[in-house]
Each structure stands twice: as C-alpha cells, then as structure tokens.
Design goal:
13-stranded mixed beta sheet, binds S-adenosylmethionine, binds iron/sulfur cluster
Length: 361
C-alpha cells in the first residue's frame, strides 16, 4: 500500500448545527443555498457487509481488524422511524434503505413495517441481493415497494473478483427473480463499471436484462470515501457505455420521469425496455440534487462526498423535541451549498470523505 489513507471509521467528524436565523422555526420544503428542496432521504441501517466490493470496501482496509460500529451506536428502529416522520414533514417523499448491506440488519422487516405506516412515503431499498431470495416475500409483506439490486457482472470469475467474497452470480439472479415474483417490481439492477475490471460485462448485462422488464443502470465508478484508490483513468464515461450498447442494440433517449432523476434514461428502439446511466463523474447533476443521507449512527450528511455530518442522534438521545429537531434540519438544509461532483479534481478526490458503506449509497 502506498499513500492511501486508512480511515478506520474516520470521516465521522461532526459539524456544529447552523445558528438560528432571523426567521427561526422549521420550514417545510425549505430550499438550500442553491435553490434545491429536500425530497429524498437515504438511510444506512448498517455499516457491515458480507461483500468486499473492490470499489467500496476493499478487503485490505475492511479486514478482520476493521472497527465496525457497536450495536449501541446504531440508531434504533424507533429512532429511525421518529426521524423519518420529521423528514416527511419537511417534504421528503422517498426513503431508500441502504448500507453496508441493509438485509444484514436483524429484523429489518420490522423497520420497514414502521416506515410503511407513514402515509405518502415511497419506500425502497438497495441490496447486493445475497439474501434477497430468502427475504423478498417478507420484505414485500412488510410494506416495501421496490428494490434495487447491485450486480457487477454475469461472468462468474469477474463477479467474484468484484465482490471479493467468492459470491456466485446465480444467487443474486435468484434474488432478482424472487423479488419480481414477490411484486417488488420494476427492479433496477445497478452495475458499477470500473475500467479494466468489468467493462467487458456491459454488453452481456444489457443483453441479459433486455426485455425482462428490469432496468439496468450503469454507474460510473466514483471517488467515494478514501479507501478505494480511485483514479480518473478507471472511470468509463457513461457516453462511452451508451455508445457501446447502442452499437449492438440501438437506443434512443427518454425524458426523465421527474426533475432531479439521477439516471439518464435510454430505451431500446425495438421497444424491449430501457437502461439508465448514472454519470456522477462526467456529467454532474448537483444542480438538481435533493438528497440527504442519514448514517448508521444518526449523522446527517447533505452530500455523498461530505467530510463531516450533523449529529442528529445527539439530539434524539438528548431529550430534544420533534419540533426542535425539525428546526435543526431546516437550518441544516438552508445552509447547504454542496456541489462536489461539479468541482471534483484529482485533489478533491484525496479529501478525507466518508466511506460509502457507512454513509449509505
Ligand atoms: N450493499 C448494497 C448494495 O451493494 O447494493 C447497498 C449499499 S451500496 C454502498 C449502494 C450502491 O452504491 C451499490 O449499487 C454500489 O454498487 C454503489 N457503489 C458503491 N461504491 C461505489 C463507487 N465507488 N462508485 C460507484 N458506485 C458505488
Ligand atoms: Fe457491500 Fe454494497 Fe459496498 Fe459491495 S457496494 S461492499 S455489497 S455495501
Ligand atoms: Fe448531490 Fe453531492 Fe452528489 Fe452533487 S456530489 S449530486 S450535491 S450528493
């Protein structure tokens, strides 16, 4: 290992809450400093994972000595549900459970039931699919609406190299089938593309899911955290991916479903479905970013590439009322000016950013 920084749960720096402004009070649908509203909340329910994807939790850092959070540090389901209600009052309409691997959090179905009780929330989850075949029906019964499943290759050797946990493709495909059978559709399949690692899997992946009703989203490899040793040279630009697929299976662009949609949509000209590309590196979409992230231990981050967060757990456990928490969230959001992907350079890539497995993808 050369000059890579080993964080061991570093990046958990806290920022002071912004001071009360003249207007004071909580304000539903407050805009941040760039005029963006708070619309989506991603909640990380565990920092642990049974995979060691090379671009997310490299095994040489996340090894047997890595200090994951102890249970007492995690937000309880009651704490998560309480915050979700407060966020809902701020205009959040969509909650995504993530991690780490969210399906490793014990009794997650119970949390889903609690969140599904909040009216008007779109409730989804991102998973590596490893235990989805077992859990899909229970997740649906608990009130989950959809799932996104990550799968980086259909080639056995490539996939095992990417997940670095010797996990087979077939079990993830079984998970996708079980989720579809349980009614958790349409399913999105996330493939992170790392040049030199799995770019040859792009076409087979598109071909396999074409006509299935599932939507593959090709994601540019990002400089999240500090452990993955990201280099710009490892990024395969989305435009290149669209070109590669379009050459074999002609594509045409599709209008976004809504403003701020992360994936750019393309459909097959023969009417057999669509794909998405997420170009966080080559075509930043900060201008329409309406997402906040709640970490496993209750820190609020206003950007995926943040270097510090706001300690909401401290408020929850310090006897603060919902109204005061709501006021703090409004102040945090109004103070937000994040636009990391628009200003990314080789230098910013070295900042001590929070790991994705902790902040939630
Ligand atoms: N463990 C679950 C999974 O893999 O789906 C949920 C958490 S994971 C951090 C969420 C998403 O982030 C996954 O689709 C994963 O592929 C993606 N991801 C992780 N590290 C990434 C990176 N460096 N660049 C781009 N996407 C990344
Ligand atoms: Fe685990 Fe998901 Fe990160 Fe892979 S991407 S190591 S499955 S959290
Ligand atoms: Fe949003 Fe930050 Fe990503 Fe920009 S870099 S889209 S502000 S999370």
């Amino acid at each position: 290992m050369t000059d890579r920084v080993i964080p061991i749960n570093d990046g958990r720096r806290t920022k002071p809450f912004p001071p009360k402004g003249e207007s004071g009070g909580s304000e539903r649908s407050a805009q941040d400093r760039l005029g963006r509203r708070l619309h989506d909340l991603r909640i990380s329910v565990t920092d642990r994972c049974n995979f060691r994807c090379i671009y997310c939790m490299p095994r040489d850092v996340f090894g047997p000595d890595y200090a994951f959070l102890p249970k007492s540090e995690l937000l309880s389901f009651e704490e998560i549900a309480r915050l979700a209600r407060v966020f809902k009052d701020h205009g959040v309409e969509k909650i995504r459970l993530t991690g780490g691997e969210p399906l490793l959090r014990r009794n997650l179905e119970r949390l889903i039931e609690m969140l599904a009780d909040i009216p008007g929330l779109d409730l989804t989850l991102t998973t590596n699919g490893s235990v989805l075949a077992k859990k899909a029906r229970a997740l649906k019964a608990a009130g989950l609406t959809r799932v996104t499943v990550s799968l980086d290759s259909l080639d056995e050797a490539v996939f095992r190299r990417m997940n670095d946990a010797d996990f087979p493709v077939s079990e993830v495909l079984n998970g996708i089938d079980a989720a579809a059978a349980a009614g958790l559709a349409p399913i999105k399949v996330n493939m992170v593309v790392k040049r030199g690692a799995n770019e040859d899997s792009v076409i087979p992946m598109a071909r396999y899911f074409k006509g299935s009703g599932h939507i593959v989203r090709f994601i540019e490899y990002m400089d999240v955290g500090v452990t993955n040793g990201w280099r710009m040279d490892d990024v395969l630009p989305s435009a290149e991916i669209v070109r590669m697929i379009g050459e074999k299976m002609p594509l045409e662009p599709v209008e976004p479903n809504y403003t701020g949609e992360v994936a750019e949509r393309w459909r097959y000209r023969d009417g057999s479905g669509e794909i998405g590309v997420i170009s966080s590196v080559t075509q930043a979409f900060c201008r329409t970013c309406t997402r906040a992230r709640l970490s496993t231990e209750g820190m609020l981050y206003t950007c995926l590439f943040a270097t510090a967060g706001y300690d909401l757990r401290g408020l929850l456990r310090g006897g603060t009322s919902d109204e005061e928490i709501s006021d703090a969230i409004a102040r945090i959001w109004r103070a937000r000016a994040d636009r990391y992907s628009e200003i990314r350079t080789a230098e910013t890539a070295k900042l001590r950013k929070i790991e994705m497995s902790y902040i939630g993808g």
